[in-house]
User: Which sequence fits this backbone?
């Protein structure tokens, strides 16, 4: 939200905007999310356009704040395939300073490299990245991933990445739009930019308190293990997976669904 209102008028306007968003989303938002989003935390400005020379680098402020790069535009050394010792040899590549997920010839049924995860595990952290979707793309950012014989999403909560408009013609998109906690909790606002433009995602996990941020706006907040969260799990596709959301520490990951996506500025800090 751009700031056109100085002083106390800005405060009143922000309060009104938040109140309207609350009314419009009350049916989809869980009680614990309502409480977490009702604080006075300001909506941070959306990321400014990134100068090409600054892509995949840390600012002085980020360095002071403890951020570190997971991808420098060339090396994928911070990642490996899910349940694999090395980075995938197909389906993923570093190209022109970007981490690229390649489109599979047959789409989702013909995935190439599978999901990737960080080599390091995290418990309390902030993880941010820029992403760009191709038309019709579907993917997700995974966190607190626990490696088992089952797919990564059986254990990991997901920050959904998807072409909202294309998939809305085929599926019920409630709790399945970009920024949502996939199949668990809908965003309180639509902060996504058009397909083909860069978006910034950020996930924050601190002692079980989880936040999803999209283009500088907090869109999801929940508490892992809370009564509201457990109720939502029981009503979701994850009810059959006891490992889902159970880990307090895990890997960060990105899904490969056979669609092309681009990533840059992958950064993490422990908090």
Assistant:
């Amino acid at each position: 939200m751009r700031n056109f209102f100085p002083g106390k008028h800005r405060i009143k306007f922000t309060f009104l905007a938040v109140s309207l968003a609350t009314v419009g989303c009350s049916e989809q938002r869980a009680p614990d999310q309502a409480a977490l989003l009702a604080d006075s935390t300001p909506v941070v400005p959306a990321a400014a356009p990134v100068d090409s020379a600054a892509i995949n680098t840390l600012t002085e402020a980020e360095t002071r704040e403890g951020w570190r790069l997971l991808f420098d535009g060339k090396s994928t050394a911070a990642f490996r395939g899910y349940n694999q010792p090395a980075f995938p040899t197909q389906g993923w590549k570093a190209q022109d300073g970007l981490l690229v997920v390649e489109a599979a010839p047959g789409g989702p049924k013909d995935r190439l490299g599978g999901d990737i995860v960080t080599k390091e595990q995290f418990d309390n952290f902030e993880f941010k990245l820029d992403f760009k979707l191709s038309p019709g793309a579907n993917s997700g950012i995974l966190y607190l991933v626990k490696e088992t014989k089952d797919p990564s999403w059986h254990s990991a909560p997901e920050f959904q990445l998807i072409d909202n408009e294309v998939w809305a013609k085929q599926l019920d998109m409630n709790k399945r739009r970009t920024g949502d906690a996939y199949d668990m909790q809908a965003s309180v606002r639509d902060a996504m930019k058009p397909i083909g433009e860069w978006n910034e995602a950020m996930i924050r996990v601190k002692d079980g308190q989880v936040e999803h941020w999209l283009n500088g706006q907090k869109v999801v907040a929940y508490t892992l293990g809370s009564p509201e969260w457990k109720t939502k799990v029981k009503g979701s596709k994850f009810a059959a997976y006891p490992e889902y959301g159970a880990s307090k520490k895990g890997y960060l990951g990105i899904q490969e669904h056979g669609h092309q996506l681009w990533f840059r500025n992958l950064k993490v800090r422990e908090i």
Q: What stands out?
A: The first helix runs from residue 7 to 24. Residues 30-270 form a domain with the Jelly Rolls fold (CATH 2.60.120.560). Residues 1-31, 40-50 have pLDDT under 50 and may be disordered.
